[in-house]
Design brief:
alpha+beta, Butyryl-CoA Dehydrogenase, subunit A, domain 2, homodimer, Butyryl-Coa Dehydrogenase, subunit A, domain 1, globular, two-stranded antiparallel sheet
Chain lengths: ~600, ~600
């Protein structure tokens, strides 16, 4: 049985020592003092460890089942969902007027990591609801908000997002689901949607489906797509539930992982729906939530890596196998623990330096979303738009790799289901795919975000790195050597890649797009390098001050040194690949594959 | 339903254009002319595609079941096993005197890739038998050989290898299973073994377990381990089956993949066994088969990557999604096929250039094993010993990554089980673990093989690369630039890493061991770089000659150019990591993780 402990201390360090959130002038941040966030995280951690985590393996083993059109979630899910609702966790960062607690997104994200690390499949029921509620909040009429939001914020009703169809995923312009206007403001929605997470289940009284569909006669392709609210049960004027709508579950998909979440084929058969936002502006309505949703998926990459890491460390300390080549460490035992071996260390340090760096990156990103939303800061909005595909693509790729590495620490025991390590890998795999497959994230980054607003945001990013380096260099030789210098090298690699794209992409866009995946990864490394440089600085300040827990801060600096020395050099490889352009990538005829 | 096509043309190219096997003076090789091997591969390909492949998903879905102590394999496995036996495939490279066909190992390996690519879990029943039979062949008495080998070569009886126990995997010195001598040449074996592939099943009349155990009173640790033959049913003097031995299945493990293979907990309760080889020399007996067994696992890394790749290509050609940014390619369709997109190309080229390079590497390795065994060539034996951990560790890591990339081409369809892509990933995962987890391979490479025989073999490898570069440079500028130059750079990186280990490892062995995993990977890249340089040369020679299929050879050269340009630069990153030594890897106390 795996363990899960909420990373409260690490989270607090990032929120307060690094981001210093309570000193920020973002509305709502001044309330987020260390004592307060500590109390919230402590409570969330208890829910994660005691309520959600014990159901993680149960969800994987039992899965969801469809019987006579009704979806049943695994044993214990319903009770746990009730506890989440009762604790008020579902509306933590939702507006007070709809029953939420109006906390900033940065705190919701910190809590979300813990819930997701404890049980990703379970938390998705709430996560999709949060996404759907955010869409209604951003694009709904007052009437729609009043009708749906209170019950969605409390998770009495849950939500879904219906985009994919059997023949179209990324290219939603090919969509066939149609919405016929009925003249009374309502539409009849017909079509099939697939891969609908939390599509149906037995934990809520109603499910509010947000469905992309085309109104006949509208523009071709993606420009003719609109977004609709399609409740499972129609909601009467008085807010009570009326008749069952024309939406049903066709099937539950058999998946590699996240078995505890019901991934459904949803059939819409003249289901009644109402337009959310404007006609034919469905994609725009979806896109306003994209940064949040993608950051949430990037967070899953972190959360699964963190959970897997915790278990790998435990196993590496417990399992006795072989002897330390530099001298026996456990003379009273038959062998030394795995953790004495350098390659096990290398493996664990890869994981540790990733998860802590990723957590800083995500919380920084979440604070940018707050800045954009709560302060209306356009620069923050631009920067988080740029970084969103990096957070999503890089963190889910690397997070997955880390779950594979954690599994590897267990040897054969990592491959059998008994120890739970296979599940982390299988669950983490989906995050590389949904909410835009990572290749699409790379395309978004290089094909769209780099040049957005005249390249202003990427220049701002480089300036930020440069300013940080300048302001913090020259005070401590060891810090400069371990952090500032590698950060400069990596950032220069990234700039060189950007320059290559500008120059060679002009001649042939494929020269840029062939390197998009490498670019996404090198960008991610530079961001984690920046995070580590900031964390090391904060840790050193704490050490220079009156920090009582010196071990914690010294470990933080040493973990950062590992990242800078061992992980960051990847940027050079990515740059070398990128600079070979499209030549070898595009050389073959399709028939020659 | 996934597809599988045997890569006959690619295999023939390697065997004849690159390795030129029929011109070799290794005994038995002169028979291996292109027409002959082509016919064998053609037949093997039919078995793979028509008999084994259709059962791959069946095996995954049904798994094996244990009922009243009896293990049942999935539907169709028994029939398919009969067909393998009838076709004589089980004894292809086994000696004629025991009913085999005495073909060289290189041909057995080429055929093995096809069978394994079609159905890894199934082929393991035969693979383990092959391994056990090889051990008896190498270490058994004439009586033992006569008693067991004919039925094992024909797979009337299958075999298993019993090493792991619950508390010990890599560190077999901790073993508890004991073997009490009975004074009549037999022993009573008692203990529990876990993770026993093909441990029991319903496809053979008898199962010959090879079991590592300790004879009481022998040396401590690994030096007191002996190897025993423990048949499921005792074999009478006349060769007929006698009473059931004291060995039983405790459980079938639930695993991430290879569900079609019965991975058993085996309980030995005073089971009768006979010593194989010498007392307390059990590990030596195991090690003589290690190169073959590990090459076989490396081959699984290739085979799953190849199978996954074939399907990813098919999907990328069929699935219409988005438009080529440089101009519409499929104007009559609603969208262009995925394969027009540069990042999909990058992904597919990664896979293609890996599988073709890996195949050359493995077949070259297999020919070295033939040279060592059939010609008694000590240098070949030394070189393949050096390269074995690279073949096993690098090819299974990369092979796994490639199945993940193939899955990614499918987007959401890669995550649901319906399309079969998840299975390739789940099946491929085990190869990184069994037959020595890849971290142990890296340790074997750096801690043992590099310095073996005074470093003679690694020097021979570098000489080989240097000689090849020298002999083939200066004739064709494009070839030099695309192949010779990158190969030189990568080889220089590898040498620099080896030099670092020598110098810094003297001071502290952890400086070398902290970089062992990176070294294994950079070594693998250099080997694949060498393979590609050789393949490109052979392809160019064919083009310069009268090759009719120009596309095939041009594609070969272009695929090689991709590998050299896009994959080989990884060596620089690995070197940079290695040169940071043990400092950051070993900085933390165990308690600080």
């Amino acid at each position: 049985m795996p363990v899960y402990n909420a990373p409260i201390k690490d989270t607090q360090f990032i929120l307060h020592d690094v981001l210093k959130i309570s000193e920020s002038d973002i509305p709502g941040y001044s309330d987020l003092e260390a004592e307060f966030t500590g109390a919230v995280l402590e409570e969330a951690g208890k829910v994660a460890t005691n309520v959600l985590h014990p159901l993680n393996v149960v969800g994987d083993t039992e899965g969801c089942r469809l019987e006579n059109g009704v979806v049943y979630t695994p044993t214990g899910f319903k009770d746990a969902f009730e506890q989440m609702k009762e604790g008020g966790w579902t509306g933590l960062d939702m507006p007070e007027e709809y029953g939420g607690q109006n906390m900033p997104y940065v705190l919701g994200t910190a809590v979300g990591e813990m819930f997701s690390g404890a049980n990703q499949a379970f938390v998705m029921y709430q996560g999709l609801t949060h996404g759907a509620a955010s869409a209604i909040l951003a694009h709904g009429t007052d009437e729609q908000k009043d009708k749906y939001l209170p019950n969605m914020v409390s998770c009495e009703w849950t939500g879904t997002m219906n985009l994919t169809e059997p023949h179209c995923g990324t290219d939603l312009g090919l969509m066939r689901t149609k919405a016929d206007p009925q003249g009374d403001g309502s539409y009849k929605i017909s079509g099939q949607k697939i891969f609908i997470s939390s599509g149906d289940h037995d934990m809520a009284d109603n499910i509010i489906h947000l469905v992309l569909a085309k109104i006949p006669g509208g523009p071709d392709g993606i420009k003719g797509v609109s977004l609709f609210i399609v409740p499972k049960f129609l909601v009467k004027e008085d807010g009570s539930l009326g008749e069952r709508n024309g939406v049903s579950v066709g099937n539950i998909e058999e998946k590699m992982g996240i078995h505890g979440n019901s991934t459904c084929v949803m059939n819409y058969d003249e289901a009644t729906g109402w337009l959310l936002g404007e006609e034919h502006k469905g994609m725009r309505a979806m896109f306003t939530m994209m940064n949040e949703a993608r950051l949430g998926v990037g967070m899953q990459g972190l959360s699964q890596a963190e959970a897997a890491y915790q278990n790998a460390v435990e196993y590496a300390k417990d399992r006795l196998q072989g002897r330390d080549v530099t001298g026996v460490k456990n003379p009273d035992g038959p062998a030394d623990p795995l953790i004495v071996h350098p390659d096990i260390r290398r493996n664990l340090m890869d994981q540790k330096s990733f998860t802590e760096g990723a957590r800083a990156f995500i919380l920084w990103g979440a604070s940018m979303i707050d800045k954009a939303h709560r302060s209306g800061d356009k620069d923050a909005d631009g920067l988080i738009s740029l970084l969103t595909p990096v957070i999503k693509g890089f963190l889910t790729d690397q997070g997955y790799d880390m779950t594979v590495q954690a599994q590897q620490v267990y040897g054969g025991h990592g491959y059998i289901e008994e120890w739970g390590m296979s599940q982390y890998t299988r669950d983490a795999r989906i995050a590389m795919i949904y909410e835009g497959a990572n290749g699409v994230q790379a395309l978004d980054l290089v094909g769209r975000k780099l040049a957005q607003d005249g390249g202003k945001h990427v220049m701002a990013f480089f300036d930020m790195v440069k300013t940080f380096s300048k302001e913090n260099a020259g005070q401590d030789e060891a810090y400069d050597k371990a952090f500032i210098e590698p950060l400069k090298v990596a950032s220069k690699d990234l700039q060189a890649a950007g320059m290559y794209f500008m120059q060679e992409g002009m001649k042939n866009p494929n020269n840029a797009l062939s390197g998009s995946y490498d670019f996404m990864h090198m960008f991610g490394h530079v961001c984690l390098g920046l995070m580590w440089a900031q964390m090391a600085k904060a840790a050193q300040q704490a050490l220079d001050g009156d920090a009582s827990d010196k071990d914690f801060y010294e470990t933080k600096i040493n973990t950062g040194r590992f990242y800078m020395a061992r992980r960051l050099p990847a940027t050079g490889m990515h740059l070398a690949r990128i600079q070979t352009g499209a030549d070898t990538v595009m050389a073959l005829d399709a028939a020659s594959f």
